[in-house]
Every structure is written in C-alpha cells, then in structure tokens.
C-alpha cells in the first residue's frame, strides 16, 4: 500500500477500506508515514467527509494505536460521561456521586488540561488531602466496594490522536466532524467503559457554536459508539452563558455540594438530571427515563447522594467535613462586587469571554506550565433572563490580587443588559441514534 494512493482516493471522494485506515494510523503512529502526507489526507477528509463505516474504523484504529483500560474487574455496567467542554461546567462533580448512590459503578479517569478553570481533578484537589495518585488495584477495589473512584490519566492512551490532533491544529483541519468525532470517541472507548453519555455543548462557550453543528457532531459520535459496540447517547445543551453560578475550582466544589443537597442552581440541576437519567437508563437500573429521573431525585432528597460524596472524598484521602463546612475550602483574599450600571434584564453573559476573565484571575491554565489558584474565580449573581437594578451586583470576583480592573472591564464588556430577554433553553435535544 502506498500513502499517496490513499490520499488520492480520498481526494477524489472514495471510501477507504478498514485495512487502508489501519495502515494509515499504524504507519503514522510509528513515524513511518510523514506529517505532510497525513495533513494532506486530513484536508481531503475535511472536504470529502467519511462514511459511517470509515468513521468507526478510524476510531478503532486510533484506540488500537496505544494501551486501553481494562475495567472488566469492576462489576456492573460501567457508564462514562463526557462533555465537549464549557465554562463553569460542574456536572461531573455532581453526577459521579449521584449515579454511584444508585449502585452504578463510576470508574472515572480524568485529566487536568487547559481551560478557563481546572479539570475535574484540579477541582477535587481543592478539598484538603484529596488525591488521585492511587494504584490501579486500589482504584478497582474502591469502585467495587463504594461504586466510585477517580484516578489520574496514566499510560499511553490513543497516541495516534495526540499526533493527529496536534497536526490538525496547525493545518486548519480541526473543524471536521469525522475527525472531531473519532478523536473524542477514541479516547472514551480506550478508557474502557461499556456505555457513554455525551454532553455536547452549543453556544458562545462551546466548540460547536450553533445547535445544528452540535447536533451533527452528536449524531456522528453516537453512531460511532453504537457501531463499535458501546451504547451511546448524547444530550445537546446550552453553553451560551456559563453553567450554574460558580466559575472556579473551590467555588465549583461548593456549587456541586449545594446541588447534591438539592439547593444548587436550577440550570446545573436540570442538566445533571438530564445526563444522569441517561446514565441510569444505560446502566439498566431503570426501565424508562422517567423512572431513572425519579430515582435520581430520590437519592438527592434522602441525602444518599451527599453521603456518597463524603464517602468518596474520605476514600481518596480528602477531608469530608468540607461538605458540612464549605468555608474550609480555599478562600480568596478579596471579594469584589461588579454592580450593574443600569436597570433592565440580563440578555447575554458571553460564556467564553467570562471564562477567560476567570482564567486571568488564575482559575485556569493558559499553558500546560501555568499554576492554578484553586480559591479564585467568579460567582455570577444574575443569569440571562433575570431582572436587574442599577447598583445591584452582577458578579462577585474572588481574587488573590487587589487590582482587578482588567477583569471588571472584561465582565462589563461581556454582560449585556436589555429591556427584554428570556432565559435560554438549556437542553436542546437528545440524540440516541
Ligand atoms: N476535542 C477533541 O478531543 N478532539 C477534537 O478533534 C476536537 C475537540
Ligand atoms: Ca458552575
């Protein structure tokens, strides 16, 4: 097989065979096929697309380029959740104990990464003593006994994706549905769960800016998952404004605790229930989505979900008393209010820009080397659709520096007040095939 012939075939709209796709990904992983040929192929895929079969084959070729996680020692149906990324997205911290409280095993492998705030692991490390440096054996044992554990990313998972993603980044080929879908799904499949619930975000703070694009991506990923034998569903959710009120690490831990107590922000609770009911259903713990949702509400009401969170924290060395005493979480030195300049209704809180303001405070990493400040971030006091009077606080800045003029300006530039506005629809669509 010659790579040049495969590039030509795709350039002319042909369909690559399973063997051809395996040849390309194996050759690229081993540095036998050069970047310039793979970038030409990526551009051909960008314009000519891939069939469903090609997409599934590409995903599995990427999975097979490295190690995979074997969760077979864990009893029950393992359901993973993945979000395509947003601002102030605290759902994992809520969903993991919520679902585990229904005896569904949550075996979560998580990363740190870049962004407006840290990843799930960074957030959890705001709890004194909590750590994810546990052995594989301990991880499996915790999930079997208590149904929940989080471990840091280890091993050589999907090396082909790392190379391909970096190459796409510099060849204007990131924005291709078959390439995005196979990239995301390969990582989820390599992580070993039996079923996958996807939260595909749409809006200013999302990778996919329009609901149509988000739906196309969701469908592509759901089909890949189902075609390779992992039950997969997707929820398409709004990310035009940040999720919940908190954007920051310790602030989001507190928000997750509030939500597990049944006192969280309405939108965060609604999304957690929308995702959670799919997870419960895919785990065969309910006969219908309605029954699944009722079970989730019941473990919030009874306090079982909160108890599960405490157990989880204690299991991994953390101090569970933060649940009853959130003031023990890292606190920023300064709290600065940002008052509204006029009366009206909040019409826009541009998610990605507000997320960047939180990053400027130190809540997230701009580069891999950046340090993160777990205490800082933003608390929204208003959401889109809320009436506001001049002088009322729109946002409380939690900072460890006294001068926050840059952040205040960024906030004013990205919160719009109008005469009329309505809260956006949170859950746009559910994709099951
Ligand atoms: N996120 C991924 O992991 N891969 C992509 O290709 C795009 C977004
Ligand atoms: Ca939040």
Which oligomeric form is depicted? single chain
Bound molecules: uracil, calcium ion
Specify the number of helices. Answer: 16
The helicity comes to 40-55%
Q: How are the strands ordered across the major sheet?
A: 1-4-5-13
Average pLDDT taken over every residue: 95
Relative strand content:
15-25%
Q: Provide the low-confidence segments as ranges.
A: none
Overall description:
By secondary structure, this protein is α/β, with parallel strands linked by helices. The protein contains 16 helices and 13 strands. It has helices spanning 3-11, 18-29, 35-48, 52-63, 91-100, 120-124, 136-146, 159-169, 177-190, 211-227, 249-260, 266-282, 289-301, 304-315, 351-361, 405-414, and strands spanning 79-83, 106-110, 148-152, 195-202, 231-238, 246-248, 334-339, 344-349, 377-380, 387-388, 393-399, 415-418, 427-431. It starts with a helix and ends with a strand. The relative contact order is 0.14. Calcium ion is lined by residues 88, 90, 243-244, 246-247, 252, 255. InterPro entries: Glycosyl_Trfase_fam3, Glycosyl_Trfase_fam3_N_dom, Glycosyl_Trfase_fam3_N_dom_sf, Nuc_phospho_transferase, PYNP-like_C_sf, PYNP_C, Pyrmidine_PPas_bac/euk, Pyrmidine_PPase_CS.
Explain briefly what this protein structure is.
By secondary structure, the protein is α/β, with parallel strands linked by helices. It has helices spanning 3-11, 18-29, 35-48, 52-63, 91-100, 120-124, 136-146, 159-169, 177-190, 211-227, 249-260, 266-282, 289-301, 304-315, 351-361, 405-414; strands at residues 79-83, 106-110, 148-152, 195-202, 231-238, 246-248, 334-339, 344-349, 377-380, 387-388, 393-399, 415-418, 427-431. Strand 4 (195-202), helix 10 (211-227) and strand 5 form a beta-alpha-beta unit.
């Amino acid at each position: 097989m010659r790579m040049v012939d495969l590039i030509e075939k795709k350039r002319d709209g042909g369909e690559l065979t399973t063997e051809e796709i395996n040849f390309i990904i194996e050759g690229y992983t081993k540095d036998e096929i050069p970047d310039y040929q793979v970038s030409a192929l990526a551009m051909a895929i960008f314009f000519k697309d891939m069939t469903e079969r090609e997409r599934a084959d590409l995903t599995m070729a990427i999975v097979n380029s490295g190690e995979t996680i074997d969760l077979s020692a864990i009893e029950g149906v393992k359901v993973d959740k993945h979000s395509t990324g947003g601002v102030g997205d605290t759902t994992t911290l809520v969903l993991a104990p919520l679902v585990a409280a229904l005896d569904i095993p949550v075996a979560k492998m998580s990363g740190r990464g870049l962004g407006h705030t840290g990843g799930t692991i960074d957030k959890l490390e705001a709890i004194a003593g909590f750590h994810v440096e546990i052995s594989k054996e301990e991880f499996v044992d915790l999930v079997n006994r208590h149904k929940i554990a989080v471990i840091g990313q280890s091993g050589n998972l999907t090396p082909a994706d790392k190379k391909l993603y970096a190459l796409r980044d510099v060849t204007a080929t990131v924005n291709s549905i078959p390439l995005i879908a196979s990239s995301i799904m390969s990582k989820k499949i390599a992580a070993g769960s039996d079923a996958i619930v996807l939260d595909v975000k749409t809006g200013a703070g999302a990778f996919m800016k329009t609901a149509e694009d988000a739906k196309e991506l969701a469908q592509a990923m759901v089909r890949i998952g189902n075609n390779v034998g992992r039950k997969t569903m997707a929820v398409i959710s709004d990310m035009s404004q940040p999720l919940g009120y908190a954007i920051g690490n310790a602030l989001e831990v507190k928000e997750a605790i509030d939500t597990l107590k049944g006192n969280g922000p309405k939108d965060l609770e609604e999304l957690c229930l929308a995702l959670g009911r799919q997870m419960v259903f895919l785990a065969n713990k309910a006969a219908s989505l309605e029954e699944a949702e009722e079970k989730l509400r019941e473990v919030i009401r009874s306090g079982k979900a909160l108890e599960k969170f405490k157990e989880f924290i204690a299991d991994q060395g953390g101090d569970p008393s933060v649940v009853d005493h959130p003031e023990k979480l890292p606190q920023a030195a300064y709290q600065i209010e940002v008052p509204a300049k006029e009366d009206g209704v909040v019409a826009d809180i541009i998610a990605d820009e507000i997320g960047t303001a939180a990053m400027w405070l130190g809540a997230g990493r701009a580069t891999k080397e950046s340090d993160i400040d777990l205490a800082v971030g933003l608390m929204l006091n208003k959401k889109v659709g809320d009436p506001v009077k001049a002088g009322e606080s729109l946002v409380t800045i939690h900072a460890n520096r006294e001068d926050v003029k840059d952040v205040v300006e960024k906030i004013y530039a990205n919160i719009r007040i109008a005469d009329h506005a309505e809260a956006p629809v949170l859950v746009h669509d559910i994709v099951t095939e």
